[in-house]
Amino acid sequence: MDTTTTQWTKDQLDLFLNNKTLTMKPYNPDMTTFEEESPVWEVVVDGNVYSRGWNGDQTKWYMAATAQNAGAISVGDRDFAARFEAVTHSAELDAKITAAYKAKYDGQRSLPKMISDGPTYATLHVLPR
Fold first, then answer.
1. Are 72 and 81 in contact (CB under 8 A)?
2. How far is 94 from 115, CA to CA, in rounded Å?
3. Which end of the chain is more exposed for a tag (fewer CB within 10 A), N or C?
4. Inter-CA distances, 67 with 12, 19, 102, Å
5. pLDDT tens digits, residue range 7-18?
6. If you write DSSP's letter for every residue of 53-121 in order, what string do you get?
7. Residues 60-87, buried b or exposed e (16+ Cβ, 10 A)?
8. 29 close to 68: Cβ distance less than 8 angstroms
9. What percent of the chain lies above the pLDDT cut of 70?
10. Fold topology of 10-128
11. Which helix (H) or strand (E) covers residue 51, if one does?
């Protein structure tokens, strides 16, 4: 498993930019097994990776990710140890993330749902661990 300490590298960010989904694997409370493995949409904004929970803050992987703040992700053919943080919302950041979703997933049937209030509220910052 690849690990970094603070930020994603340029090559890692390119991997996120060039793949439509990542697999989210937040830990269970035992911190050794995963709650579930869920393919999710992700976007890159200002060098940071974000993902939104389809069912808002009731999305199972989002609840586990914000409870444990750690797990793993897979994107492309790469696996990474990850930490997760609920986003501190601001109108500016929410708008940038929504714009990134619109640009990356333009034409997808699920896009209107992913930029609605529930998923926007459940935005997760995905960081290397």
1. yes
2. 9
3. N
4. 25, 27, 28
5. 999 999 999 999
6. -TTGGG-HHHHHHHHH-EEEEEETTEEEEEEEEE----HHHHHHHHHHHHHHSTT-TTHHHHTSHHHHH
7. ebbbbbbebbbbbbbbeeeebbbebeeb
8. yes
9. 95
10. Pnp Oxidase; Chain A (2.30.110)
11. strand 48-52
Cβ atoms of 122 and 65 closer than 8 Å: no
Judged by DSSP in three states, 127 sits in strand
Contacts of 13 (CB under 8 A, 6+ apart): 44, 47, 49
CA dihedral 9, 89, 53, 78 (to 10 degrees): 0
Contact call for residues 27 and 104 (beta carbons, < 8 A): no
Q: Where are the domains of the chain?
A: 10-128
Are 53 and 59 contacting, i.e. CB atoms less than 8 angstroms apart? yes
pTM beyond 0.85: the answer is: yes
